[in-house]
């Protein structure tokens, strides 16, 4: 038996969220082409007619799920309160958050992979996501500027490239955990391996941004 959500009193917001939660599971498991609206209806406890009423179809539902996935990580990053921390502390906290988020939300990785297979067509015109991404880059840029001013970070770091690197050091490792286990010969998800990777990620990025000695 698959995961099934408990009954909740029906109202538009609850119903929409039930559908999104069930769809996230189904799309993460089967991708857009393999996902079944019947399964989403069964898991959510919402009939197919209501799913089409709220989202208009499987493609639009997938777009909503991907949007929600990005909005979740971006909103949690903004809630970290990094602007009030010392630059190095803020950067370490962001690195730690990113690693833990990717580790604890494997559906995010599979959904991003799926959207990349579709060449990002479901989010291409999404202004809200671009606005959130711009805010995220601005937050990282602010940390960098404060770090340069305090002497902790070097000048000339591209905030966009740094954002990509912060995501990449955890995303790639977790995304390739199965092929990596075979090719490198160790269990990527072993407790000690995860701890070593977390430490490596932090050391790598912190050395990348650190001020160079005169």
Tell me what you see in this structure.
With 214 residues, the protein is mostly helical. The chain folds into 2 domains: 1-56, Homeodomain-like (Arc Repressor Mutant, subunit A, Orthogonal Bundle), CATH 1.10.10; 62-209, Orthogonal Bundle (Tetracycline Repressor, domain 2). It is built from 10 helices and no strands. The chain is globular. 23% of the residues are buried. The model has no long low-confidence stretch (mean pLDDT 93).
Strand content: under 5%
The CATH homologous superfamily of the largest domain corresponds to Tetracycline Repressor, domain 2
* Termini gap: 63 Å
Structural class: mainly alpha
Order of helices and strands: HHHHHHHHHH
Total count of domains: 2
Low-confidence stretches: none
Mean pLDDT: 93
Could you give a short account of the major beta sheet?
none
Number of strands: 0
Task: Write the SSE topology.
Blueprint: H1 12-34, H2 37-44, H3 48-55, H4 58-78, H5 87-104, H6 106-117, H7 127-150, H8 159-175, H9 177-184, H10 191-209
List keywords for this structure.
214 residues, 0% strand, 2 domains, mainly alpha, Tetracycline Repressor, domain 2, 74% helix
Summarize the structure.
By secondary structure, this protein is mainly alpha-helical. It contains ten helices and no strands. It folds into two domains: 56 residues, Homeodomain-like (Arc Repressor Mutant, subunit A, Orthogonal Bundle), CATH 1.10.10.60; 148 residues, Tetracycline Repressor, domain 2 (Orthogonal Bundle), CATH 1.10.357.
């Amino acid at each position: 038996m698959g995961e099934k959500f408990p009954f909740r009193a029906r109202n538009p917001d609850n119903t929409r969220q039930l559908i999104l939660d069930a769809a996230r599971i189904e799309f993460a498991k089967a991708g857009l082409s393999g996902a079944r609206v019947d399964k989403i209806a069964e898991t959510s406890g919402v009939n197919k007619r209501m799913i089409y009423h709220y989202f208009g179809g499987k493609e639009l539902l997938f777009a909503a799920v991907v949007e929600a996935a990005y909005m979740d990580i971006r909103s949690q990053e903004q809630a970290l309160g990094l602007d009030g921390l010392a630059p190095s502390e803020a950067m370490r906290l962001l690195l730690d958050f990113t690693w833990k988020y990717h580790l604890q939300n494997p559906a995010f990785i599979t959904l991003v992979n799926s959207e990349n297979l579709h060449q990002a067509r479901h989010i291409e015109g999404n202004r809200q996501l671009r606005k959130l991404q711009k805010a995220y880059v601005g937050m990282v840029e602010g940390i960098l500027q404060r770090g340069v001013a305090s002497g902790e970070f070097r000048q000339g770091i591209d905030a966009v490239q740094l954002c990509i690197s912060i995501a990449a050091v955890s995303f790639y490792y977790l995304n390739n955990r199965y092929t990596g286990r075979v090719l490198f010969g160790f269990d990527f998800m072993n407790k000690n391996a995860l701890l070593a990777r977390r430490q490596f990620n932090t050391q790598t990025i912190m050395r990348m941004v650190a001020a160079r000695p005169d």
